[in-house]
Amino acid sequence: MNDDKIKIKCKVLDSIDEYKFNIKIYDSYNTLIYCGNTDESGTMYFKPKYYGVYKVIITNKKNIYPRKLCSSILIYNNYCHTFLFSFYKCLKNKNNPITIILTDKNYKNLPIEKGEILLWPKNI
Fold first, then answer.
1. pLDDT (tens digit, 9 = 90+) per residue, 9-35?
2. Which of 71, 68, 86 is nearest to 9 (CA)?
3. How far apart are CA 15 and CA 28, in angstroms?
4. Following CA atoms 14, 20, 26, 31 in sequence, which dihedral angle do they give, to the nearest 10 degrees?
5. Mean pLDDT calculated for residue range 71-86
6. Is the distance from CB of 26 to CB of 33 less than 8 angstroms?
7. Where are the strands (E) in the chain, listed by range?
8. What is the pLDDT, as a whole number, of residue 124?
9. Whose CA is closest to 23, among 75, 60, 54?
10. More confident site: 63 or 123
């Protein structure tokens, strides 16, 4: 295998904040070949020993979703290998309920009396 390094980038899409992520990489034999953290910008590089399928497990204890992400990546010859994993910030404010108004199937503009459901976002 050549000297190319694989780039893994973790990005929180709805935030300009930067986070560190914990990354574990396993080969096709389920052997741990890398365990470490990204830099402050969520980026890390590793040099695989051979082409093939690798399992990547990314975790973070901050207030983002999902807290754990598992994915398989395929590394093969003559291609640029950059993998982007997306995360989202969890909602912090529990005081903003979501209201859904139920309506009758046959009368779309007529709301059902007492037909409200209040939903509160749950932090994951």
1. 998 887 777 788 999 999 989 999 999
2. 86
3. 34
4. -160
5. 80
6. yes
7. 6-12, 22-26, 32-37, 43-46, 52-59, 64-65, 68-75, 82-89, 98-103, 111-119
8. 47
9. 60
10. 63
Residue 115 has pLDDT above 80, yes or no: no
Do the beta carbons of residue 18 and residue 37 sit within 8 Å?
no
**DSSP output for 85-117:** EEEEEPP--TT--EEEEEE-SS-TTSEEEEEEE
User: Is 6-89 a domain of CATH 3.40.630.40?
Assistant: no
The count of residues in the chain is 124
* Closest of 68, 78, 88, 67 to residue 15, by C-alpha: 88
- What proportion of the chain, given as a percentage, has pLDDT over 70? 69
Q: Which two tokens stand for residue 7?
A: 């780039």
pTM check: above 0.70: no
